[in-house]
Amino acid sequence: MTFPSYTSSCLDAAGRGRQFGARWRQAVHANLDGYLRLFEVSGAHDGRVRELGEQALDSTAAWAPELAEEIGGIAAGCGLEPWQVAVVNARTEILAALRHDGEGECSTAVVLGGGLPPRTTQTWDWHDHLRDAPLLWAYEPREGHQVRTFTEFGVLAKIGVNSAGLGAHFNILRHESDHAHPGVPVHVVARRILDEAATLEQATEIARSARTSASTVITVVTLEGARSLEICPDGVAVVEADTNGVLLHANHFLDGALSAGERLGTERPGTYARLEHLEERTGELGDPDATARARAMTSHGPVAPVCAHADPALPLDQRWETLAVISLDVAAAEMQVHQGRLCQVTDATWQTF
């Protein structure tokens, strides 16, 4: 099994959006419906969701006008209102506004050095009813600059790599400063980094220029190094790889100052156990073989499984599953993507994009 993939041919943001929306009309509608179900279970009525979506779209338009135009283009192409497409781009902000939490989430490992390009591995854990949300999307934000992203239908970007040799991993965080007045969606921040950054410093500057209302960590990787950008409304902290070239992240803040406002880890402490598991496997996580790295990352421990299996007995908003495993090749500007859980990875299940 593989994820659907799509290559845009339009350089104009609004036109690219219309082209995408027309091609993937049914899938964008289905993804929106899936999120509306999640928001409803989390306590939001339709009017509240629209209000939050419109605020997020306004914040996007002020910070990245072309990306707001692309959201509008997707909406026009698939027969939705712009605020509806903004909703799926701002799902992190809406869930933060609703104070939604969950047990599962993503784990990321980057290992540098050893005379090899960076070795990166990430799980993408999300609600199992949204397992059909992802796709692989290639596009050019400007002529000669290619971006490949693992994202969701209607979402501008998430995890990805660009032809300048920069890649980005993506993990959700929760912070006491998160609030209910949507700023720039963190997925839009990831998109601008992939569209514009060639260096770690450029990525950091982009992240720091955004006024956000929710938290996340974007781990940026180049041939020269890697760093995690811990983003929250209180600011952006930089976490560098350690002296051995290892950079690991789960779903809690590592920066000393921002960690004082940690919220997800205090409510869901399994994130700390997941990070400890990665720390115990750093040697194997530096293996040049992506399958070996996935096997090293795999854990079904009862406290904090890195490979998550959804429990059908739980409510919709508490069912989490590892839906994808992603490795970035920044030297080749490609990704290797596995659809499904970590424990299902084999050499034959990787999709190169």
Automatic annotation (TrEMBL):
Residues 157-294 form the Peptidase C45 hydrolase domain. Keywords: Acyltransferase, Transferase. The keyword Transport does not apply. InterPro entries: C45_proenzyme-like, Peptidase_C45, Peptidase_C45_hydrolase. It comes from the Bacteria. Pfam families: AAT. GO terms for molecular function: acyltransferase activity. This is C45 family autoproteolytic acyltransferase/hydrolase.
